[in-house]
Amino acid sequence: MEKLKAGPPSLFVVDEAHCISECTGRLGMRHAQVVVWGFDRPNIWLGVEACPDEATKHRVLLQRVKDEAKPGIVYVATQAHAEELAADLIEEGVTAAFYHGGMNKADRDREQDAFMADQVDVVVATNAFGMGVDKPNVRTVIHYEVSESVDAYYQGVGRAGRDGQPARAILLYRPEDLGMRRAMAAGGKLTEQQVKEVAEQWWAGVTRCR
Predict the structure, then answer these.
(1) What is the pLDDT of residue 132?
(2) What residue ranges define each of the domains in the chain, with the CATH number in brackets?
(3) How big is the CA angle at 156 (ends 155 and 157), to the nearest 5 degrees?
(4) With the C-alpha atoms ordered 131, 132, 133, 136, is the resulting torsion angle positive or negative?
(5) 77, 137, 197 from 120: Cα distances, Å
(6) In sequence order, what DSSP letters do the residues of 163-197 get, joined into one string?
(7) What are the backbone angles phi and psi of residue 50, rounded to the nearest 5°?
(8) Is pLDDT of 205 > 80?
(9) Could you read off the pLDDT of 101-140 as tens digits, one per residue?
(10) Sign of the CA dihedral 128, 134, 137, 139?
């Protein structure tokens, strides 16, 4: 802070679109120049696969990971799910690893370095696997659950095809996933209505499975 006061910066640049509104607000920037660049990535194929239940979605994920081009990233909502799905993929013969914010730094660095060096075909990760991951040849990004926002989804999809070559982004979707995301966004403070909605979505899924 002393150095900043001694030589005030003449230019302050904020990268990453999802950070801009928060940064301008916190810094009280009244005359910020906002540069908006096109975000169309025509080399990335976007698709959604509707899955009627969790068992189907799990089966589809394993098959898609085996079939789609590597390397790839699978995004999940929870740390436990990242570890579970990585283990399932390894059992299926896929060279996979998991990555999430609950790991110590040394383990996170090891898994990220292995992926960057093409020693791991697929990383199953939470959104903690994002910043600083600039691997040009990611061919496939699969979202196992819906993202917490459109911005977060675009950030995840944007990891694919940075070399300009064709890449694929697939979202595996169940209507029940939206209720789970709303519950997570509430930060543990659920309203009675939210609990009711989650219960109704769960019961609807059970009914379809019978």
Answers:
(1) 67
(2) 44-174 (3.40.50.300), 177-209 (no CATH)
(3) 95
(4) positive
(5) 21, 13, 39
(6) TSS-EEEEEEE-THHHHHHHHHHTTT---HHHHHH
(7) -80, 130
(8) no
(9) 999 999 999 999 999 999 999 999 998 887 668 899 999 9
(10) positive
Question: Is the pLDDT score of 37 beyond 60?
Answer: yes
> Which of 94, 65, 96, 93 has the alpha carbon at shortest distance from 83?
96
CA-CA-CA-CA torsion sign (149, 151, 152, 153): positive
pLDDT tens, 153-181? 888 999 999 999 999 999 999 888 876 66
Helix ranges restricted to H, the chain:
2-6, 17-27, 54-67, 79-91, 105-116, 150-157, 176-185, 192-209
| Cα(126)–Cα(99) distance, integer angstroms | 7
Q: How far apart are CA 104 and CA 82, in angstroms?
A: 15
Report which secondary-structure segment, H or E, holds 122.
strand 122-125
CA dist., res. 120 & res. 111, Å (int): 8
Where does the pLDDT of residue 184 fall: very low under 50, low under 70, confident under 90, or very high at 90 and above?
Answer: low
Token pair, residue 54, equals 């969790």
What pTM value is reported for the model? 0.74
